[in-house]
Amino acid sequence: MMNFQSLKFRIIALGVTLVVLGIGLRLVFALPFAQDQLRDLAASQQLSIASYIAHDIDHSIVARQTLIGELAGILPPALVRRPDELTAWLKERERLNPLFNGGLLVIHPDGNGTLASYPAATGREDLDFSGREWFQAALKADAPVMSRPQREQAGGDPIIIMAAPVRDASMRVVAVLAGVASLDAPGFLDRLQENQLGATGGFLLISPADKLFVGASDPSMILKPTPPQGVNLLHDRAMAGYRGVGVTVNAEGVEELSAMASVPSTGWFVVARMPTAEAFRPIAALRGFWLKSTLLVLVVTLAILLFMLPRILRPLTEAAQAMREMADGEFELRPLPVRRNDEVGSLALGFNYLVARLREKEAALRASQDRMEFMAHHDALTGLFNRPMLEDRLQQAVARAEHNGTRFALLFCDLDGFKPVNDRYGHNVGDAVLVQVATRFSEGRRQIDTVARLGGDEFVILLADLDDAHLDAVSVARHYLATIGAPYDVGGITFTLSISIGIALPQGPSLSGSQILSQADMAMYQAKRAGKNQFCLFDEETGDCVAEPSSAAQALDVPTRAA
Ligand SMILES: Nc1nc2c(ncn2[C@@H]2O[C@H](COP(=O)(O)OP(=O)(O)OP(=O)(O)O)[C@@H](O)[C@H]2O)c(=O)[nH]1
User: Fold this and answer.
1) Which residues pair with 249 in a beta bridge?
2) Quick check: is 457 catalytic?
3) Alpha-carbon distance 318 to 320, whole Å?
4) Residue 426, ligand 1, Cβ within 6 A
5) Hey, what domains does the chain have and what are their CATH numbers?
6) How large is the C-alpha radius of gyration of the chain?
7) Mean pLDDT (the chain, rounded)
8) Which end of the chain, N or C, is less surrounded by CB atoms within 10 Å?
9) For the GGDEF domain, which residue ranges apply (predicted)?
10) Is the full-model pTM beyond 0.80?
11) In sequence order, what are the residues at sequence separation of 6 or more whose Cβ sits closer than 8 angstroms to the Cβ of residue 197?
């Protein structure tokens, strides 16, 4: 289960946040900019197309106007009275430059019928042109004129008529030369009508003066009236003279991008229109691509983080695991391996330093505990057992005696005349003597025996598990009288000392340790009273102390300095 507090989750969350933030900022700032650029590009492309078409139409119109003007200028006025020759002349010109697929007509100056026409079209010769706007204009104009777009009376095809006056030498109009061009004639407006813009867009050619669609990609619109004012605002603006690009909603409710370009020679304008859904499709594609790439970047980022993070953090989790195991006591405290020179490695180094310090403190604590333990059971000066330890051993001996019937003896020893040593040579010398005395008491003792110093110059020896308690105790007492009585040498000072020993030999089970110690003490005092340098035995039955002068007994002399 994902731990939301974990470092891994936080790094992943940070990574995802950064990616989303980066992409979000791009979407907020860069995408609208790119969209505007694409929108402008689509609009300018559409305007270019509209301008190209408009220029093409203008060129076609001008070419026809020029041709009709030139033909009117070179038509020999004399031919006006020779219809056959006039027809032949027209035929020859039309074959040379077939811009008027609806035919060339030479109209009587009063407008009643034609003088000649090519190709011949039935009924034209009797038509009355006098009331036609373009005919009237042609009579007065110096330059060629053009009719409004209209349907041909005979066939109903959409046409325009170009006309120019034919004048004689005295500049009198002798005829009007007219050329009929079908709007969908090849090379005229066919490019506009046959082509679509993109997949769903198209073109319109509009005459604002006539409020008519002159041409359209959709043939059904040709020569239909334009929408009334107020229906389409962009159309209204274009009708009023606006040329450029705009977005509008057409009659079917489809939003369109429309570009308007003028056809200067006629006052018409071309509309290149395309649904915005198609025109701005690259923008939608761009947005879609950005969203998909965002998703991809997110997925890849997540995948990389999920793959890499456990590997990067593995030393950390291993270190934590090792620390936990050490804390639980599964392993002893030990340094962690430092595998990498990074933050995790530095953490391991820090932990190892902590381990080293802990080990040092642990060792110091153990030494201190050992020392305290020793002090609790030993005499600080001589290293012999102290009183509590003696009492403990004595209690054990009493228990064993009660339980097993074993015998033991307690020897209470007190140095004779120790005070003068202190007084004469100082406490340090006294201490050194006490240490030597302790050594002599300890030498040759059995493992089970206990030698303790009670304090001052008092020593107690517990002889445990004796076969013959009396004999053994006396024997040891004699031994001590001899060894302690041997000369001492402390820093060149030599002297002798003796001891008085009180011996307790408990026989019954009912005595406590302190009672036995007290018996030995009393016996020791008895030995002192009896002259020192000897031992006394406490008699349990009488409660008396029996002195047994030692063979080693001798008078305690004042210590002498060595020579
Ligand atoms: N140097 C030294 N002297 C101590 C220590 N503890 C006690 N003493 C001295 O040892 C002496 C023991 O006194 P006593 O046993 O009365 O003197 P003593 O001269 O041995 O007298 P008797 O036992 O009657 O022969 C005293 O002077 C204490 O001050 C110690 O740790 N070091």
Assistant:
1) 255
2) yes
3) 5
4) no
5) 75-182 (3.30.450.20), 378-548 (3.30.70.270)
6) 68
7) 88
8) N
9) 406-540
10) no
11) 46, 49, 203, 217, 272, 273, 274
